[in-house]
Write a structure and sequence with these properties.
The structure holds 2 protein chains of 2 kinds. By secondary structure, chain A is mostly beta strands. Chain A contains no helices and 11 strands. In chain A, a hairpin with a 2-residue loop joins β5 and β6. Chain B is mainly β. The chains are: A mainly beta, B mainly beta.
Chain lengths: 115, 112
């Protein structure tokens, strides 16, 4: 148990569906991340939140919409996805400091399949 | 943009052989981290290197940070089947607050 919990673990959705991924961290960290892991790009940074403020959107299509209501919770809202969006979506948290992001603690991931 | 290049992409070894993965950056890194992801699992932190020329050991794993702080390596001595997985290096992005960039990873297969 890493202290970062993701739900659901598996998700199958159609291209017209709307779904959300949830991440919760119990570590008191101030930064949370969404990463996409696929065969083409093993660990691709999508979004970064610091103190619940989005500080990074790594050119992610608008069909992915993050939400961070507080520093412990992070969501990724999905709508009108494409089959190529099928991947493992990993949430991570860290205790950022002025000299750097600190150590990343990852959740178990959500295996997403778009049909 | 800033990238962290990692080689090789795959490595197949016989159990008992050694294994090394390398991580390179075109810019000086403030620190570098290493993670391991077991098949079907998620990345798990192994170690962080901060000082120029730093060498750290964890049992059969030896981690090095280059003198110029632009490269790093992970060496496993006498691999075991439990070493199977993908090893990632990661480094903070310059000017990117709390932004951690990962290398492409090296997938290690160990044949008994």
């Amino acid at each position: 148990e890493t202290g970062v919990t993701q739900t659901p673990r598996h998700l199958v959705m159609g291209m017209t569906n709307k779904k959300s991924l949830k991440c919760e961290q119990h570590l008191g960290h101030n930064a949370m991340y969404w990463y996409k892991q696929s065969a083409k790009k093993p660990l691709e940074l999508m979004f970064v939140y610091n103190f619940k403020e989005q500080t990074e959107n790594n050119s992610v299509p608008s069909r992915f919409s993050p939400e961070c209501p507080n520093s412990s919770h992070l969501f990724l809202h999905l709508h009108t996805l494409q089959p190529e969006d099928s991947a493992l979506y990993l949430c991570a948290s860290s205790q950022g400091r002025p000299r750097g992001p600190g150590i990343a603690f990852f959740g178990q991931g959500t295996r997403l399949t778009v049909v | 943009g800033q990238q962290v290049m990692q080689i090789p992409q795959y490595q197949h070894v016989q159990e008992g052989e050694d294994f090394t993965t390398y991580c390179n950056s075109s810019t000086t890194l403030s620190n570098i981290q290493w993670y391991k992801q077991r098949p079907g699992g998620h990345p798990v932190f192994l170690i962080q290197l901060v000082k120029s020329g730093e060498v750290k050991k964890q049992k059969r794993l030896t981690f090095q940070f280059g003198e110029a702080k632009k490269n790093s390596s992970l060496h496993i001595t006498a691999t075991q089947t439990t070493d199977v997985g993908t090893y990632f290096c990661a480094a903070p992005l310059r000017g990117g607050y709390n932004k951690l960039i990962f290398g492409a990873g090296t997938r290690l297969a160990v044949h008994p």
